[in-house]
Amino acid sequence: MPTEKYFGKICNLHLDLGGERYATNRGCIRCVYERARVRRLTNPEKAKQYQRQRYSDHLEASRAYSRNYARKWKEQNREWVREYSRVWYADNSVKRIAKEAPQRARRRGQRPVLTAIERAQYQEFFDIARARSMQTGVKWTVDHDLPLARGGLDHPSNLMLLPARINEAKGARHDSTLEYLLS
Question: Domain residues of the chain, as ranges?
Answer without folding.
Answer: 5-53, 58-91, 93-182
